[in-house]
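Shipment paperwork, digital attachment
Item: protein structure file
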Amino acid sequence: MPRKNLPPHIPYNKSLLEKSRELRNQLTPPERQFWNALREMPSYKSHPFNRQKPLGEYIVDFYCHEYRLVVEIDGDTHGTEEAQVKDQRRTDFLESQGLRVIRFTNRDVVHNIEGVMESLENLLNEIEEEAP
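Attachment content:
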């Protein structure tokens, strides 16, 4: 996607800025592993991602504005029914803003980073193909 055709930015709660800065400085080991692998992808330089990006009332793990893509790395706490309901609410909001959301578990990242990055690359290629 050419930069001049970027979609508008999504408004966010400014009170989340400090928390997002803290989270950027305290990545979990799987988030750090994913971030390092992400930065090695050939498409990263032309389509960068942000870490711990405020969007609406949420802070997403990774976000690429040009691809309108959110990547979430879910830890063990996301397995409870309550957490799944919250995650769905969050996903519904993000999708209502025209974003795609892809989720990986900590386990996926730690034990299969190559598969995670391949899935992401396939999705990015799909998004590229859909672009006008």
